[in-house]
Amino acid sequence: MEHMNTADKIKQLAKVYAPEIVQVRRHIHANPELSFEEYNTAAYVKQTLANYGIASETMAETGLVALIKGKNPEKKTIALRADLDALPIVEANEVDYRSKNQGVMHACGHDVHTASLLGAARILQELRDTFEGTIKLVFQPGEEKFPGGASIMIKEGVLQNPAPEGIIGQHVFPLLQAGKVGFKSGMYMASADEIYITVKGKGGHAALPEMNIDPVLISAHLIVALQQIVSRYASPKVPTVLSFGKLEAKGATNVIPNEVKIEGTFRTMNETWRREAHQKIKKLAESLCESMGGSCDIDIKNGYPFLQNDPELTGRTRQAAELYLGEENVVDLDLWMGAEDFAYYSQEVPACFYRLGTRNEARGITSGVHTPTFDIDESALEISIGLMAFVALQELNA
Length: 398
Ligand SMILES: [Zn+2]
Ligand SMILES: [Zn+2]
Fold this sequence. Notes:
alpha/beta, Aminopeptidase, Alpha-Beta Plaits, 2 domains, eight-stranded mixed sheet, four-stranded antiparallel sheet, 9 helices, 16 strands, elongated, Amidohydrolase, manganese, hydrolase
């Protein structure tokens, strides 16, 4: 062993531990729990860490944090993050490890993230006499549900004592072949806010428009007008999406209703612009409704912020991945307008969120996340546990 370089040493350990981590993943997959209800999952993670000789502490009620201290632990701390929660989906996969909790399913791969971090922890714990610094393991609850477990973990101090100089997370990516990983430096994922508008008019007989204030017509104008926020106010350099997916007017062919409800999502990748855009949306909606004789109530609920991959940390992590997996297995990612609560960490410390390929077309493993048939090619686990351990050690040495 002593003649081997770190990458080869880790690859060897990853190979040894992969079968066990496949079982860990299957156990978590078969026993999914919804956001902020991950009591059994957290207990299982705590026990598994204890089996590896790693003490952990509960945080955010159903989350955990643990430290692996190398030599000279004060030198530097790097955090690695996984999420624990599953989704309210009925699993359609016919596999031994299918969900035993009817109506709840690990359809976003958080079972994979948790098992992978446990595997990486096992490797790092075994190597702790060979590196300097501290690895902070972050197992957070509630990624899928607002306000996001990450925001609670941060409030409870997960980024202090010791404060990590960087945080690294990974997410399964069924668009990418197992064996590969993907990176995107800078802006990566969007903030996502929910918009609720009630357009108020005055209902009545549809044959007597002069007696009514028609909230349906106002809503039609409003939906068109609001796209100006995207086409005229947003900088072309900042991706911005405004979509309305729900429109409810409970009138009839001959009845103008009193009000119309409109619901949508606003997504972007700049926090200043995000706040400005909220104000512009409100102002435009209020003044347009008023100019047409009606009024509106508008409520914009803040979701997760946008996810910024620190260019330096991401550059180094990518290099480490190229070293570990070979350049041909590391790909560039596009922007992704989905949201992810890892973004909260990225607003506080240098962060890197990369994608783990889990696709295997030959075996029919192609379903997207959040679908009842989502699954992974489990060969990705050997890669993910070793890679995560390796990038963490490279970062401690950076
Ligand atoms: Zn998800
Ligand atoms: Zn997810």
